[in-house]
Amino acid sequence: MRGLRLLVLGLVTSVAVLSARPAQASLLLEPYLGYELGKLEYTGTPNASFDLSSAALGLRLGVAFPVFFVAADYSFLVGGSSKQNDANSTKWDASGNQLFVEVGAQLPLVRAYVGYGLMNTFELKNNGTTNKFEGGTAIKAGVGTTIMPMFAVNLEYINSSYDKINGNSPSDSKSNYFMLNLSLPFEF
Fold first, then answer.
1. Cβ atoms within 10 Å of 25's Cβ, excluding its own
2. Is pLDDT at 155 greater than 90 in this prediction?
3. Cα(53)–Cα(47) distance, rounded to whole angstroms?
4. Which 8-state DSSP code applies to residue 47?
5. Among residues 138, 139, 137, 136, which one has the least CA distance to residue 164?
6. Could you tell me which of 18, 55, 6, 5 has the C-alpha nearest to residue 34?
7. If you average pLDDT over residues 45-64, what whole number do you get?
């Protein structure tokens, strides 16, 4: 009887081991084009507030597992403009870039992710004057859906604080942006 139990246990174990799928990982390559809207607040002498609107280009590169992914996400502003909330509504040219490390979950129709900023710069230019905001911390939260097999639509919220302005510390500047982007997620 003991031999029969061992044989059945061995067969069940063999079937379980042979039918189990190995963990599959793939390379995630996801370029995207987005549009950002938000606000930059500078607390200093004098205080200033800016409204931003800009197109953004980015690339997410990482490793995707059946449900989770880990990726580096680099993006930069293209043709951005910012309007200062002052009496003259001064217009500024806006540029900048960000590098995030992200973790997320991908379900069949929905994906969600969070990111931590490793690099964060934002620059405003007007009539030869340049203000460069950098350093500090940035976090990102995003949710998306796949509308067709090749395209995903993502909505992201990005919160940044900058600890330097024009290379000088301390700076107390914060920005909050929403980005809507269309991406092409490829997994190899």
1. 14
2. yes
3. 20
4. -
5. 136
6. 55
7. 94
